[in-house]
Structure formats: C-alpha cells, structure tokens
Amino acid sequence: MSMDWRVFALGSAFFAALTAIFGKVGVSEIDSDLATFIRTIVILGVIALLICFRHEWQRPENLSSKGVLFLVLSGIATGLSWLCYYRALQTGPASRVAPIDKLSVVLVVVFAIFFLGEQFTWKVGLGAVLVTAGAILMAV
Question: What would the mean pLDDT of 27-35 be, rounded to a whole number?
Fold first, then answer.
C-alpha cells in the first residue's frame, strides 16, 4: 500500500520550514556557501543510508540516460537554488526570505503548463495569484 502524494507534499513543506529555521541559525555563524556545502554532504549521507536500507541501488547501465540527464540538470538547479537561498537567509529575515522562495510554486505552474503540457485550471490560476499576493505581502 503506497501513501498518497499529498502526505509527502505536506512532509516536504514541513521539512522545508525546518530547513529555513535551522539554516538561518546555521548561516549566522558560517559562510552561506560553506553552509550549503555542509548541508549537501549531510543530505548525501542521509539519502545513501536510505537507499542502502531500502535496497534501491541500481547499476549505472540500467539507468535511463534521459532520466540521468534531467536529474543532473535538476541537481545543478537545486545547488544554485540552495546557494541563493542560504545567501538570502544569511542577510535577510527567514520569515521574509521563505515566502519569496515559495514563488517557485508560481514558476512551477508556468513551467508545467508550457513544458509538461499540464492543464491550467481556474483553481491553479487562483492559487498562483494567491501565492504571489501572499509572498509580496510577507516580503514587503
């Protein structure tokens, strides 16, 4: 039995919130780029342990080259996002940095429509407008 994607999405939001709080404290004493590096090493270790525990390792030749290419691009984007995020946290208040970071939700909607062919509905549009308004309101 698999859990609903919403459970994982809520988990992502919860841990992202902790990331902002813990990260803000961390970058108050360590350079933001070095903090990102340390965080990345920890993530690598945690995920390696999870993959080992769940027996999910695969031989490289069995992996999809397209999948690997896009995961590499995703990793580059993630790294750049984290570097920007931690620099913003180092110099700005977490309660204002995090909402601006969540404008990524709006960008995902736009990119998903144009690049993935996902449907644009009034609910998605309204949600994107509300997220944008909330981010602006909290950032000003």
Answer: 95
